[in-house]
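Support request, please re-run this one:
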Amino acid sequence: MATPVVLVAGLHGTARTATVERLLAEHPGSLAIHHDLSEVSHGLVRRSVRDATRELDTADVQLAHGCVTCTVREDLLPRLVLLAPGSTLLIVDLWDAVEPRSVAEAVDCDEAREILRLTAVLTALDAEAMPDDITRGERLSEVGKPAAAGDQRYLAEVLARQLEYPSGLVLHGGDEDDRELSRAVLAHLAPVTPIHTVDSLPVVTGAPVCTAELAERVDPATAQLPCDAETDEIVTTVWRSRRPLHPARLFEAVDELVTESVRSRGRFWLATRPGQLLAWDAVAGIVSAEDVGPWLAALPEAAWDLVSPARRLTAALDWEDPHGDRVQHLVFTGPDLDPARFHALLDSCLLTEEEEAAGLDAWARYDDPFAAILNVRENA
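Re-run finished. Output below.
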């Protein structure tokens, strides 16, 4: 039978290390592998392998192109395959700023499936640091945690992806108040993900996880977005509409929307781009809008067989004539957030009834400030 593999991700090294050590202690015969990427910008990665009692092996790995993808392809996967026959469990202790999705999908590949069985993707979180870190707008390079040369990602951006993708979250450290606050924050940001502690970890040697399902939970077209919720001072509000958004009015509202919320994401459409499903992603005041492909309503019906069942199901649930699956579905989370004011601001960005009645030719003439962002990505 294939050897089980668990990934442990997380910006918080102490929480991640505590989780890895607990897994090693609970599973005799298990091994942990870690790639230190602190010198990856110079093409150098230091790999270590350990068991519950000691470090068994260390080596410096030279990479032609210093990046996480190279590390996984050229060293991690071959090493896991080599270690699998003599291990009861393989634990991949990911470097601080590595997002678990790319590694999970690399491990869960056809070529290695008879040897490796991905059974859990965990993100370890420091209960004291997490609520503050999700609001921090520094780049990883500014806090000494880049995962590649020229890594321009933001700390809060990476943390959001680390806690929204995995199959389980593990809290460590802090006092009871810290853990209570962390659970409250996570209930808003990752409401469907189980939360554990280092002393009570989930089973990690059972059935394999499905990386396709994990991806569908976060991909914009199929994302399982949070619902309306209020926990003490934290508020999550969901805004939905069928009508198209006026690009200039929405662009003008962006600063207010992202500075008054900590995390927001979802899918939307602009009157000037009726065929494009656009993804909204913002955290700690940093916002991005991205074209992630066509709405199903913009495709010929014969092409629907080419998309996943989850995508077709999401479209069916959202479908309403005359716009098909085109929908505004944005979710905002923040402290003391005022849902009524957010909804009023977003409603003011929609086309009026008269503008909507004017039709596609009139919409195409609107000023579109998003073009500078979206057209660049289209041409990249």
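The first strand starts at residue 3 and ends at 9. The chain has two domains: 3-218, 229-379.
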